[in-house]
Amino acid sequence: MEHDGPAGAPASPLALMRQQMAAADDRLRAGLAAARDEADIIAIARDLLALCEAVAADLAGLAPVKPLACRAGCDLCCRNLIQVRPLFAVLAAAEARATFPPAQFAVLLDRVAGGTDFCPFLFDGRCSIYHVRPMVCRGYYSLDFERCREGDYCEKGLGYQGDGGHAAHQSMVFLFALEKRIEAIEADLGLAPGLVLLDRAVRTLLAEPDATARWLAGEAVFTATGDPRLPG
Question: What is the largest CA-CA distance in the chain?
Fold first, then answer.
């Protein structure tokens, strides 16, 4: 049995992740059940991202930490087809509306109108919404830049490595588990479950002001079925 550390703090990465997952489950389920509009979804998404940041920081204090190859301006993992939970597409679109200067917003509109094979929020090698970047983006990390070039962005095939695993990998495991929990809660509440293409979802959100409300009503507003960029 795992015991908490001083003042109730989790004694291990696994204990921390279990504790925070339970808390996230309760808050997310209650929040989504009560949500009625875009503002509610944005608040939920921000709360989840704040939790992810706190867990990552706590894991770094509990688990071994080797230097990462990731640096500002490195954008290899951003040059992929990005799929996210609808929550985070809503937040990304709202952030762009609120903070992008007109010229940058126009570029974003052009990108999502045509569809992109890279993140539409990538500008000059950097994430333009970094502080509210989706959960999937937070799971990427690299210990070796050359492996990044080969498309191996993280130790994704290793599974949970135990309490001695690298903090970045522990965080990735937590994010993956939380993504699956979000999907299960969406399904339980009658929301269209599954991942959506970020550029396609943002295009819909920017063009259709009622898109978030329709998703909350159970409509599959952001489904990527039939998109030629996806396999199958």
Answer: 56
Per-residue buried b or exposed e for 33-69, using 16+ beta carbons within 10 Å of the residue's own CB:
eebeebebbbebbeebbebbeebbebbbebbeeeebe
Q: At what angle do helices 13-34 and 38-62 cross, to 10 degrees?
A: 180
126 SS3 class: strand
Amino acid identity for residue 83 in this structure: Q
Neighbours of 149 (CB within 10 A): 10
CA distance 106 to 102: 6
Lowest mean pLDDT among 81-90, 112-121, 219-228: 219-228
Structure tokens at 170: 């522990």
Residue 70 CA from chain centroid, whole number? 17
pLDDT band at 186 (very low <50, low <70, confident <90, very high): very high
Side chain identity at residue 139, one-letter code: G
User: How crowded is the C-beta side of 60, counted as CA atoms within 13 Å?
Assistant: 10
Which of 20-34, 135-149, 202-216 has the weakest average pLDDT? 135-149
Find residue 10's DSSP bridge partners.
4
Structure tokens at 26: 């309760």
Model pTM score: 0.90
